[in-house]
Design a protein that fits this description.
Blueprint lengths: L38 H6 L14 E4 L2 E6 L4 E7 L11 E4 L5 E7 L2 E5 L2 E5 L4 E4 L5 E6 L7 E7 L2
Antiparallel strand pairs: 1-2, 2-3, 3-10, 4-9, 5-8, 5-10, 6-7, 6-9
Amino acid sequence: HALGDGLVIAEIQQASNTTFRLFDWNRVGKDGQPRPLHVQQSLEVTDYDRGPVGPQQPDVVGPGVERLVACDKFVLDRRCLSGDDQPVGSDGQTVGGDDRFHILSAVAGGATLTCGDHETPLPLGATVLLPAAAGQAVLSAQTEQATGAAVLDMYLP
């Protein structure tokens, strides 16, 4: 991948020791030399029959929850938190309690994760791991976030 100015990404990957560089933006390694490129290896693993690929549209899977990606490796949901999209009588969205760990990243506004008596602030740009053993928690927009918040929720299928 190549990233441009002003982009914020969430990179979800499996443990792997494989990196193929087509271009490395003229960076150098610890030895001061350009890092190796892997043009031929990259071309060999490119699936030319997979295109064209267009933008994906999220699927609504619950109040304030959009499914961005679901595959056999991981699920990525976007949780939109505001007073308007919370279930009636709710102070937030429940997350966890499903015997899976959840990785939560605030990508707009700020949120608070409440698990039992413990509150964890999740300011814009922060990421927190909710262990599977923690049980169910509540994710809510921070009160000073008048426009709400958005949190990415990454977990195993």
